[in-house]
Amino acid sequence: MPTPVTLRPCADGDIPAITAIYAPEVLHGTASFETEPPDEAEMRARRARLLEGGYPYIVAELAGEVVGYAYAGAYRLRPAYGATVENSIYVKAGLHGRGIGRTLLRALVDESAARGYRQMVAVIGDSANTGSIGVHAACGFEMVGTLRSVGWKFGRWLDTVLMQRALGPGDTTPRG
């Protein structure tokens, strides 16, 4: 049974918890291809850029503690990609497999669609990241490709898995 969490928009005060959730993924995981964890100032600046761009950024709380976060951002910067977003989801170490990521992703999909975005792309670090691949598949994402050996981390080559799902009317109607 999924762990019940409360979702809400990310606030500036959440940045220390978000930074703490992300750092172990950078240092020990392959979900992120960063190799040095960003500090709170950098994470705060990243959040500000996303919010200024009109993108959703949400957190999951459990018993008043931020235990996960998710956001959507530009897939690519060229104007023709404007209706497409890329998602990022991170859950605190030790709490994976409890449905928190799925809850965050479903809410992010809904919020992105409500903001008029038409496609969401998941760029998943490492083809062995079966947890993230499974969460995305459970939320309606389809596998669209694997970029083989495009990242080098921990002394080995890593793949990037691309998954995608339509939002709202997707590509069935012109963008308004």
User: Helix count, per DSSP?
Assistant: 4
Amino-to-carboxy terminus distance: 40 Å
* Shape call: globular
From N to C, what is the helix and strand string? EHHEEEHEHEE
Largest sheet: 7 strands, mixed
Give the helix proportion (percent range): 25-40%
How much of the sequence lies in strands comes to 25-35%
* Unreliable parts: none
With strands numbered from the N-terminus, the spatial order across the biggest sheet is: 1-2-3-4-5-7-6
Rounded radius of gyration (Å)? 16 Å
Total count of strands = 7
Residue-averaged pLDDT:
96
Structural class: alpha+beta
Topology of helices and strands:
Layout: E1 6-9, H1 15-28, H2 40-52, E2 57-62, E3 65-74, E4 84-91, H3 100-114, E5 119-125, H4 130-138, E6 142-153, E7 156-166
Parallel strand pairs: 4-5
Antiparallel strand pairs: 1-2, 2-3, 3-4, 5-7, 6-7
